[in-house]
């Protein structure tokens, strides 16, 4: 029991510590692929360090919501990090049905961010909030169809149990990884506002989604938002790596190796995808998301009717 | 293995439903051709015969090489615009495809209770037939209609392998020849249409009189 709690706490610390590094890796990869030297891999840490030193200024027209929103955001992401298994370490929070909690805690974080963006009273941020809400609407079914179908295969509803109980001799699981990693990738890209949906580097208000919502924040607030966005990207990465956990049924060590190798490989893939694709037009994004939803539905259909 | 290939086939159908570029249709046709070729190679591993090699080779030649190349050539020659034009909103197409696919899977699982058939290849072939019909119904460009027809044809091929494990080879090769001739004629027809009208949309043909 004591060991399990220790493992849970270690995995949260690991997630909190490594998440900016992952963003740094992706950015470095992108820079190298476009022929630049790029910022150092540890740049996100420096950015965070710079932000936390600065003074926080809030708009006069804003209410208490924009003050509590960064904290709510950050805390909810830490809670979701506590649900995720790292390798085969038992996560701190694990009970039947925690996949629903996972989805809705993330939903809560998004809700507060949208509220805070509208609270400030700038028209740009209202626009960003509207976009975030619209795309979140299309992204939610992707999560439920993908994770729903995997919980369907295994017969469990807790993230840890699901990956612990999958039998690899089922050939469908390999197909499942193939299909689900596509839809999970689309989900990660959407939720974290990465390249085909939103360009994290541009500061043109008309095209931004996530960045425009935190335009008026500064200091510690911005630090919390920025850290949460790194965390969010990392959480979705782990969710994608988790499909490969059943290959490491035997030992903890192998699970950890899969975890780290997965992180590096995914940062490469994300870097490559962000280099070769350009941002989609706003009106085409719902189609892109519907495509991923369709994949999830296909998954569910296959597992229902192939018994 | 057959199931995995059919699932990939279904994914390609989804891609067709969301994409809005003519070139991507040709790429998908090539991809589906590769899938069908692999699925026709599989029986050879069980009992090898030189006669069995004819079908995969022809498939590879016709579906992967000749037809896509010919369509690309037509697109280049006639200078067709890159984007497809739809009669309904592009957004609506995907939900229609998803809904029909769900119904098809339900129906084929009911059918599988009584007859000996492989649900997943059967259902994906069936869905390809429907998607092909939808493309012909909801798109304006003639060249896209040809692609829709070819997707329908691929669906029938997959459907055939699901129902009967082996069709007589002469019939399959006959079908292939048929398809090739149809595509060829379509290309000639498109060339003719261009000399009479500007553009290649079906809406122009509605104005024809006796």
Task: List the main descriptive attributes of the protein structure presented here.
heterodimer; A: 307 residues; mainly alpha; B: 210 residues; 0% strand
Q: Would you mind describing this structure in some detail?
A:
The complex is a heterodimer of chains A (307) and B (210). Chain A contains eleven helices and no strands. Chain A has 307 residues and is mainly α. By secondary structure, chain B is mainly α. Helices cover 81% and strands 0% of the residues of chain B. Chain B is built from eight helices and no strands. The A-B interface holds A 171-172, 174-175, 179, 182, 284, 286-288, 290-291, 293-295, 297-298, 301-302, 304-306 and B 3-4, 7, 10-11, 14-15, 17-18, 20, 90-91, 94-95, 97-98, 101-102, 105-106, 108-109, 112, 119-120, 123.
Number of helices of chain A: 11
> What share of residues are in beta strands of chain A?
under 5%
The first-to-last residue Cα distance of chain B is 53 Å
Largest sheet composition of chain A: none
Structural class of chain A, by secondary structure, is mainly alpha
Biggest interface and residues each: A-B, 22 and 26 residues
Q: On the 0-100 scale, what is the average pLDDT of chain B? A: 82
Short account of what is shown:
The complex is a heterodimer of chains A (307) and B (210). Chain A has helices at residues 2-33, 43-53, 64-83, 98-120, 123-154, 159-165, 171-191, 210-213, 219-241, 252-276, 285-305.
What is the fold's blueprint, element by element?
The complex is a heterodimer of chains A (307) and B (210).
Chain A: H1 2-33, H2 43-53, H3 64-83, H4 98-120, H5 123-154, H6 159-165, H7 171-191, H8 210-213, H9 219-241, H10 252-276, H11 285-305
Helix pairs in contact in A: 1-9, 1-10, 2-9, 3-4, 3-9, 4-5, 5-7, 5-11, 7-9, 7-11
Chain B: H1 2-18, H2 22-46, H3 50-78, H4 90-114, H5 119-138, H6 142-163, H7 169-196, H8 202-205
Helix pairs in contact in B: 1-2, 1-5, 2-3, 2-6, 3-7, 4-5, 5-6, 6-7
């Amino acid at each position: 029991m004591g060991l399990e709690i220790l493992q849970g706490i270690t995995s949260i610390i690991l997630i909190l510590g490594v998440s900016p590094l992952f963003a740094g890796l992706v950015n470095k990869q992108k820079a190298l692929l476009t022929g630049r030297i790029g910022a150092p891999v540890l740049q996100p840490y420096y950015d965070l360090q710079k932000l936390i030193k600065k003074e926080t200024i809030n708009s006069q027209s804003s209410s208490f919501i924009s003050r509590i929103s960064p904290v709510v955001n950050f805390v909810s992401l830490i809670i979701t990090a506590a649900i995720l298994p790292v390798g085969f370490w038992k996560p701190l929070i694990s009970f039947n049905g925690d996949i629903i909690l996972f989805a809705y805690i993330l939903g809560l974080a998004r809700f507060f961010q949208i509220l805070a963006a509208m609270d400030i009273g700038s028209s740009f941020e209202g626009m960003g909030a509207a976009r975030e809400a619209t795309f979140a609407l299309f992204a939610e079914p992707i999560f439920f169809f993908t994770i729903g179908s995997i919980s369907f295969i295994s017969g469990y509803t807790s993230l840890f149990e699901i990956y612990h109980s999958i039998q690899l001799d089922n050939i469908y699981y390999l197909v499942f990884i193939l299909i689900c990693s596509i839809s999970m990738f689309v989900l990660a890209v959407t939720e974290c506002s990465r390249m085909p949906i939103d360009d994290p580097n541009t500061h043109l208000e008309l095209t931004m989604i996530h960045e425009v919502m935190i335009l008026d924040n500064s200091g510690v607030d911005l630090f919390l938002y920025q850290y949460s966005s790194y965390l969010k990207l990392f959480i979705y990465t782990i969710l994608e790596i988790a499909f490969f956990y059943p290959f490491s049924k035997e030992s903890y060590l192998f699970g950890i190796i899969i975890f780290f190798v997965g992180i590096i490989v995914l940062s490469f893939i994300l870097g490559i995808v962000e280099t070769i694709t350009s941002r989609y037009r706003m009106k085409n994004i719902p189609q892109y998301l519907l495509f991923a939803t369709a994949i999830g539905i296909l998954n569910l259909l296959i597992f229902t009717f192939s018994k | 293995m057959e199931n995995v290939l059919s699932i990939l086939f279904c994914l390609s159908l989804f891609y067709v439903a969301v994409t809005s570029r003519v070139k991507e249709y040709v790429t998908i046709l090539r991809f589906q051709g590769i899938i069908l070729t692999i699925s026709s190679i599989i029986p050879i591993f069980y009992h090898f015969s030189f006669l069995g090699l004819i079908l995969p080779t022809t498939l590879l030649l016709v579906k992967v090489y000749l037809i896509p190349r010919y369509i690309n050539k037509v697109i280049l020659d006639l200078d067709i615009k890159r984007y497809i034009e739809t009669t309904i909103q592009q957004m609506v197409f995907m939900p229609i495809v998803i809904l029909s696919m769900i119904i098809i899977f339900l129906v084929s699982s009911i059918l599988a209770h009584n007859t000996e058939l492989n649900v997943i290849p059967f259902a994906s072939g069936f869905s390809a037939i429907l998607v092909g019909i939808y493309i012909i119904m909801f798109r304006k460009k003639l060249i896209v209609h040809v692609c829709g027809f070819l997707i329908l044809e691929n669906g029938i091929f997959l459907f055939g392998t699901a129902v009967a494990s082996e069709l007589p080879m002469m019939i399959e090769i006959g079908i292939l020849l048929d398809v090739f001739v149809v595509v060829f004629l379509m290309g000639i027809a498109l060339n003719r249409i261009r000399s009479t009208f500007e553009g290649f949309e079906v809406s122009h043909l509605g104005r024809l009189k006796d």
